[in-house]
Structure formats: C-alpha cells, structure tokens
C-alpha cells in the first residue's frame, strides 16, 4: 500500500508538470482529495517518505500546487516552524483572486494552531465577501498572536466603543497603546491616552506603569505631557493624594518645572487646609522659593506638616508619644513615660519619627494587648496591611515577625499565623511585591490582576532562574492571555539572550530550551531565530560546568533529553556528566540502550580517582552496587570500604581547611552513615580475616577528626570477635599528647548533654532576657540588662571551654587498661611508708576527678607522680613542704 500511494502521488506530480494545469482548474475539491492522501500516508506511516518526494519535486518545479500543499501540511502537522511552502501556496491563489481556495487553505492551516499569515489572509477573504462581523472575529484572534499589530488593536477598540462595549474597548485601547509605544508613534499614543483617561480615570496604576515605558522608549518630556493629562483628571475628581504623587513624578523628570512646583504647593494647601501651621511650614521649608531644591523642600515640608496637635510621634528612648500642642517654635508631647515633654520644633523634626494613627507602634501603645492580639490573630489580612503601611508601604515578613513576636503573638502562634499570612500575600489581589525587591510586599490601593502581580514579581526578581519559573507560572494561568504586554516583555527578556550572545553560557542555554518549549506549544510565538540545538551545543566549552549552573530541574531534564535526541555521541557525554550530576535518569538511559560496559568503566574511574569524585563514589556505593553489571567492575568490598574511609578522612581535612565546606560536610555525613550508622563496616569486620581487620582499623584510627566513640565501638567489635587481637601501633607505654584529654565514655556523653542544654535552653532564655531588658529603655541604669549581658558572657565562656575540651577528648577503652603499671583506668594500692598506712586511689581524668572519694586525675600533681609506676616501686611526693614516701603495693583494673 505504501509503495502504491507514493507511486500515485509521483504520477500526480508528473501529470501536473506535463499538462501544465492552470490555476483555474483548481477548486477546494482537489485539496480535499489531497487531504485524503495525507490521511492515508499518516495511517501508513510514510509521512517522511511523502514529504521527501514532494521536496525533491519542488527543487525543479517550485510552484507545484500538489507538492507545496502536501509538503507544507506534513511540516505543519510536525510543528516544523518553516511554513514557507504553505505561505507560497496561499500567495499564489491570493494573486489570482481565488478567494474560495484561499479561505480553505487558511482554515486548514489554522486547524494546527494560530498563524499570523493565515489569519490575515482569512480576514481578506471575509472582506471580499463583505462579512464584516467575521472580519472583526479574525482581527481579535490576530492581535492575540501578533504582538506588534497596533492598528488593528485600535480598530477593534473603536469597533467595541461604537457598540457601547466600553470594557472591551478599553482592553484593546490598552493593547494598541503599548504597541504604539514600542513603535515610538507618540501621536497615536497621545490620542489613545486621552481616550483611556476618559474611560478608566481610576486606573492610576496602569497610567503610572505606562508612563515609565514612554519615558524609556520615547522621551521623558513626552512622559511629562501625558502625566499632566492624568493630573488634570485627578484634580477634577478631587483625588488630592494621587495628584501630589503625579506632580512628584513630573518633578523627578524635571525639577525646574515651575508649573509643577506651583501646583504641588496648591495641592498641599488643599490637603492640609485645617492644619494650624500650614503657611508657616510652607515658609520654613522654602517650598515656594525657586532657589531651594524642590525635592529637599518637599521632604522638609512633609516632615514639618506631620507635627500638629493630636498626631503621633516616636522617640527611640521614650517610645510612642502624642503631640499635645504646637506653639510657634515649641512642641509639647505626651510620652507614656514622659508626659508634657517640651521640645524645640527643629529638634523634634530631627529627633522624632512621625507616625500615622494606624501605625502598628501606635496601636501597640494605645490598645489593650488582649484586644490587639485577638484582632491580629483573627484577621491576618488587616494585620498585614497595617504593618506594611506602617513602614512606607514596603515591608518583608522578617519585619512583620519582629513587630508581632513576642509583643503580640507567641512564637507558637506565629508559626500558624505565618502560614496563613504567606497564603494571603500570594493570593490576595490587594497585595503585590515591590518591583525592586521580591522580598518586599506592598499594599495596593486597587486590586492587582494575577498577570500584573506575576509581572511585578518577574521584574523584582534578580535571579535568572527565578524569572524562568515566574514565566512558567504566568503561562500556566488559564485566565491569562499570551497577548498582553506583560507576557511580551517577559518573553522578550529571554529571546534577547538568543539574539545577542557571543558565547553560550547557562543563561543562553536556558533561554533556548525555554523559548523552544514555548514556541512548540504556541507556534505563533515564533521568534524567527534560525539556529538549532546543535548550534547551541557546539558553543558550550564546559558541559559539566554549564549543567551544574543550570539551576532549574526541568531545564536540566530538557538539556539531557536534547543531548540524547540530537547529539550523536550522547552516551559518552552522559558518562562525562554523571559524576557531576548524579542522576538516576542517566543510568537508566544508558542501561536501556545497552551501554553497560561504559557504566563499568565509569565506576572504575570514579573509584580510582576518588579524590576528584568523592560525592560520586558515595552515590554509586549507595545506589548501584546491586546492579547486575556492577560486578564486572571487579572492585572488592574491602576496596570499596577503604575508598569510603579515605573519602571520610579527606572530607574532614577539607572542612578543617575551609574548602567547599557545605559540600564536604554533606559527603562526610553520608560516608559516616554508610560506614557506621548503617552498620556496613561492622558487618564487614565480622567476617574479615585478622590482617584485613588490622588494615581497616588502622585507616579508621588515622582519621583524627572522627568521633572517638565510633573508633571505640569498632575496636569493641574486633575485641569481641578476637579477644587477644593485637592492634598495630599499640604499646605498653603509650604517651598521651599534652593537648589530649583521656575521658570515659560516660563523662564524654555527659559533657555533650551539658553543652547541648546550654545551647538549646540557657542561651535562648538569656537572649529573651536581653530583649525584654532592651524594651525597658535607657540602658545606662538598666540593672536587668547588665545582669543579662553578664550571664551571656558566662554562657559564651562556658560553651567555648566545653567545646575545646570535647575536641581534645580521647575516649578510654576499658578493654585496653594496662595493669603492668599505674595508668588511666586503674586502681592502685599504695603503702604510705611515712605513716605506715595503706591508701587506695583510682586514676581517671580531670572530668571524673573526685578527691573526696579517692578518684584523682592523671593530670593532677599527685596523679602525674604515680603514673607509670610499677608494683614494688618506691617514690616520694611533697605536699606543703612535707615529703611523704610511698611504695606501690598493687595495681588492678578500676570498676567504671
């Protein structure tokens, strides 16, 4: 069937060529017949053969109708970006005014997704048929996929305006406005701007956002002209606060604008008409004097104007106060701890912070704690708005917590409250993020749309890969159309990397993968860029490095998928990548394709070069040892464990030298878990021969930073199995380093519990004591603060001493007690020759020392003299200028 179908098409192509069929002979029925051939070819799975046949025919017969249609439709079904064949075909029939065929072809193209070209041609068909309503429907589809189409957006706006559908008209006017700005056509911009002020004067956020774009794309002077239009509208509506905000923007563009300066003075007069010191403060700030910098004058005026009877202020020592009266240059304030306090106005302006009556500090100072607690707990939205507005309408959650815990909410209540607050900040349209800092939240005067909220988040994010995730989130929102100026700007951010790169880095690679994915799902986003994955891949200098820097899991997966799909030697690249990426998917892919021998070689290389592949060796040990092909690597269990011990030692030394500390701590923890917590080393030692055991233990004993308890446990395992085992390096007279501190296991654990208690209980409690003392104000005469600070110093000193001692500690193994002479862990009976009596002592360390119970430290003066004495040996010891003669009578193992 396949061969017959291809032969039939070849005959059709030849007949078309030799008979020179004219365009007048074609109708939609012929194309429907070609559609039947396409269906048969798809069912027979010979699309590629059919396309190849047609493409070869087009080389010498470029206007073959049959070949153009079949090749073009196959390419379209495969989502191949190149639509030249169908574009050429449609153009042939447009030129010959065969509108019925043009319409059929365009509708077939649109069956596979939106196409700018097909939509334009279809609109022309409906124009020729005088079907005006259908033309507008097509234009609506077209402006959604052609982000540069401004004239049609305006035409649609005027169409809906004529129908009285103002909401739809405003939407299209906004689209047209942005697109005219991009084209720098200010006359068109001004015309639409005036329309939008007429129809949605309350949408101030939109106008303020757009004026920034105008200032950047066209000029600041033009932005000022448009802001003046908005200002006039706000004044007419009596919105004095927004009017002042707009005038400040105008003055930022041109601080010498005398009109704006005069207007802002009039606005201040209107806003503060009831203020007792209004004219005085205008005079003091020199707001009306052209020689004074306008921004400094405004700032000065706004500082002063906040000082009026009944307003609240804050002093760093006296806290919140309320202005009782203002008389000339003097201001009287009632603070909670200092009532009827008089200050010079100038000093007050410099020393005090003015607060609104709804400021969180004012509420905490004036409301009962129980009432405020209940409201904050029951209404997180109100609390968030109150606190954010209290700090210049820009606040992060750390600041929110500082204001609420522990003064309003307990730490336990905060945990639950914080979860609710985060959900509100994310979903409530009343909240947005600062365009300059993703961590700062703002309260919106008007609800913000989800697309604008995500756009603002995108702009505020500084990290490239955070922006990748935000764009993905934007695209995933069902209620968002991808024709908005917000999406266009975000999408263009990534395409800009592809248009201007000179070297492939992680941003360029990520942009390619992201853009390719989006264009694949939404073909109308075609960027026109003419390069493929291999072009990008060939530009990568260091594949492992760029993979590691690709800080996005989905992009990493896409990168690996593209390598396998398009790079001939993908298996070798996977092998090179694995030690750096440690992904199971790489192993699975190589196993499926039969590359077990490459995996064997990779494992052998990792173990041989463990210094450079520490993390890979640990990962392989934990995940691949049970694979059928692993045995072919011929790495004995002893060698595997020895390699892990070397890695453990190496990571300890790297940590000590502050090299890649985080990574080495992770590797160190994993190695310790395998060797000790999982019981792997113990299991191996239970079946190993004595020579192997000695080799393993010697390596473990040489890891100087390993917890002594782990060494002691391993030693105990060996002794339990071989009671007479002689450890390499053991001596009957083994000297102890002056820095070392021999301790028993019981006291070692006790000291660890002690330091843990101080860090977990006493230090936090002390920190709270300091915080409470700080809230009491003046520190100079604050006895509670001084006592808390003294306690802090004692705790810090105690912790430092304990840490030093624990680091020096060497655990004593009772099984190694040596009774041939006096040593740690022995009980000695002495004859006091001077007095003729027997004395009994137990020799331990300074931690265990208890002279009243005859337990003495080997580091004490008397202990140091006794140490290493044998039975029968005589010695003298002087105390308080008295010399006492002793003879060692007996030495035994102490009961511990």
Blueprint of the fold:
Blueprint: H1 2-19, H2 28-43, H3 47-60, H4 65-77, H5 84-95, H6 99-110, H7 116-128, H8 132-145, H9 151-162, H10 166-182, H11 186-199, H12 204-217, H13 220-237, H14 240-253, H15 258-271, H16 278-284, H17 294-305, E1 312-315, E2 319-327, E3 330-335, E4 341-344, H18 345-351, E5 353-355, H19 360-366, H20 369-378, H21 380-390, H22 397-404, H23 411-427, E6 431-434, E7 437-443, H24 450-460, H25 464-476, H26 485-500, H27 506-521, H28 533-538, H29 543-548, H30 553-566, H31 570-581, H32 584-592, H33 596-608, H34 614-623, H35 637-656, H36 661-677, H37 680-685, H38 690-701, H39 708-721, E8 741-743, H40 745-774, H41 783-808, E9 809-811, E10 826-832, E11 837-844, E12 855-857, H42 861-866, E13 874-879, E14 882-893
Parallel strand pairs: 8-9, 11-12
Antiparallel strand pairs: 1-2, 1-5, 2-3, 3-4, 6-7, 10-11, 10-14, 13-14
Helix pairs in contact: 1-3, 2-4, 3-4, 4-5, 5-6, 6-7, 7-8, 8-9, 9-10, 10-11, 11-13, 12-13, 13-14, 14-15, 16-17, 24-25, 26-27, 30-31, 31-33, 34-35, 34-36, 35-36, 35-38, 38-39, 40-41
């Amino acid at each position: 069937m396949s061969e017959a179908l291809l032969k039939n098409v070849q005959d059709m192509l030849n007949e078309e060529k030799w008979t020179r069929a004219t365009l007048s002979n074609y109708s939609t029925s012929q194309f429907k017949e070609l559609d039947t051939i396409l269906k048969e070819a798809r069912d027979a799975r010979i699309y590629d053969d059919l396309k190849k046949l047609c493409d070869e025919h087009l080389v010498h017969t470029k206007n073959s109708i049959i070949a153009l249609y079949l090749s073009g439709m196959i390419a379209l079904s495969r989502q191949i970006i190149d639509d030249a064949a169908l574009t050429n075909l449609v153009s042939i029939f447009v030129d010959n005014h065969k509108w019925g065929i043009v319409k059929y072809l365009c509708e077939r193209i649109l069956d596979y997704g939106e196409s700018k070209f097909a939509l334009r041609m279809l609109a022309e068909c409906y124009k020729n048929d005088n079907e005006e309503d259908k033309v507008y429907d097509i234009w609506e589809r077209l402006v959604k996929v052609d982000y540069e189409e401004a004239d049609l957006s305006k035409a649609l706006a005027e169409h809906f305006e004529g129908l009285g559908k103002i909401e739809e008209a405003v939407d299209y006017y906004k689209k047209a406005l942005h697109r005219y700005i991009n084209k720098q056509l200010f006359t068109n911009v001004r015309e639409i701007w005036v329309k939008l002020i007429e129809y949605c004067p309350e949408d101030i956020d939109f106008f303020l956002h757009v004026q920034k774009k105008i200032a950047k794309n066209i000029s600041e002077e033009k932005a000022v002209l448009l802001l003046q239009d908005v200002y006039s509208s706000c004044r007419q509506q009596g919105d004095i606060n927004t009017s002042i905000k707009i005038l400040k923007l105008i003055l930022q563009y041109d601080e010498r604008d005398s009109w704006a300066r005069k207007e802002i003075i009039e606005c201040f007069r209107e806003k503060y008409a009831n203020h007792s010191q209004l004219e005085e403060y205008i005079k003091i700030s020199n707001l009306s004097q052209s020689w004074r910098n306008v921004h400094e004058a405004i700032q000065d005026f706004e500082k002063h104007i906040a000082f009026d009877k009944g307003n609240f202020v804050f002093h760093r020592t006296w806290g919140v106060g309320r202005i009782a009266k203002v008389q000339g240059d003097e201001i009287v304030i009632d603070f909670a701890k200092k009532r009827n306090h008089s200050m010079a106005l100038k000093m007050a302006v410099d020393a005090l912070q003015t607060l609104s009556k709804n400021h969180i500090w004012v509420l905490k100072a004036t409301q009962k704690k129980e009432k405020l607690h209940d409201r904050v707990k029951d209404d997180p939205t109100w609390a968030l708005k109150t606190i954010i507005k209290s700090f210049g309408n820009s606040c992060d959650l750390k600041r929110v917590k500082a204001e609420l815990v522990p003064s309003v909410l307990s730490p336990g209540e905060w945990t639950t409250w914080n979860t609710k607050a985060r959900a509100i900040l994310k979903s409530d349209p009343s909240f947005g993020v600062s365009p300059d800092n993703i961590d700062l939240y703002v309260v919106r005067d008007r609800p913000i749309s989800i697309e604008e909220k995500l756009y603002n988040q995108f702009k505020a994010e500084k990290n490239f890969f955070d922006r990748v995730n935000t764009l993905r989130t934007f695209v995933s929102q069902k209620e968002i159309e991808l024709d908005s100026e917000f999406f266009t700007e975000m999408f263009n951010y990534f395409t800009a990397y592809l248009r201007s790169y000179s070297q492939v880095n992680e941003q360029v690679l990520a942009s390619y993968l992201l853009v390719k994915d989006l264009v694949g799902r939404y073909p109308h986003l075609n960027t026109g860029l003419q390069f493929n994955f291999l072009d990008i891949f060939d530009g990568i200098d260091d594949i492992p490095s760029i993979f590691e820097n690709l800080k996005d899991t989905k992009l990493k997966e896409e990168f690996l998928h593209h390598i396998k799909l398009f790079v001939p030697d993908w298996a070798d690249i996977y092998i090179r990548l694995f030690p750096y990426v440690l992904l199971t998917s790489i192993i699975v892919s190589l196993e499926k394709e039969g590359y077990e021998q490459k995996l064997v070689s990779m494992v052998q290389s990792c173990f041989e070069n463990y210094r450079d592949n520490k993390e890979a060796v640990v990962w392989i040990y934990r995940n691949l040892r049970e694979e059928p092909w692993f045995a072919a690597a011929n790495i004995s269990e002893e060698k595997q464990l020895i390699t892990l011990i070397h890695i453990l030692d190496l990571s300890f030394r790297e940590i000590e030298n502050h090299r890649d500390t985080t990574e080495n701590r992770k590797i160190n923890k994993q190695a310790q878990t395998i060797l000790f917590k999982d019981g792997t080393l113990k299991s191996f030692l239970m079946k190993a021969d004595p020579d192997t055991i000695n080799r393993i233990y010697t390596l473990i004993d040489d890891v100087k930073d390993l917890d002594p308890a782990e060494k002691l446990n391993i030693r105990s395992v060996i002794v339990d199995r071989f009671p007479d085992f002689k450890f390499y390096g053991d001596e009957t007279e083994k000297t102890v380093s002056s820095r070392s501190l021999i301790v028993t296991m019981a006291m070692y654990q006790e000291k660890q519990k002690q330091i843990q208690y101080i860090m977990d209980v006493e230090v936090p409690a002390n920190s709270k004591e300091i915080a409470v003392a700080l809230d009491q104000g003046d520190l100079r005469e604050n006895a509670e603060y001084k006592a808390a600070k003294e306690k802090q110093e004692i705790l810090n000193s105690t912790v430092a001493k304990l840490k030093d001692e624990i680091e020096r500690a060497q655990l004593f193994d009772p099984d190694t007690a040596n009774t041939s002479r006096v040593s740690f862990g022995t009980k000695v009976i002495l004859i006091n020759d001077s007095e003729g009596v027997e004395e009994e002592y137990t020799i331990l360390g300074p931690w265990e020392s208890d002279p009243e119970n005859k337990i003495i430290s080997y580091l004490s003066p008397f202990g140091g003299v006794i140490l290493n004495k044998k039975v029968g040996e005589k010695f003298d010891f002087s105390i308080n200028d008295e010399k006492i003669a002793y003879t060692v009578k007996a030495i035994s193992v102490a009961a511990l």
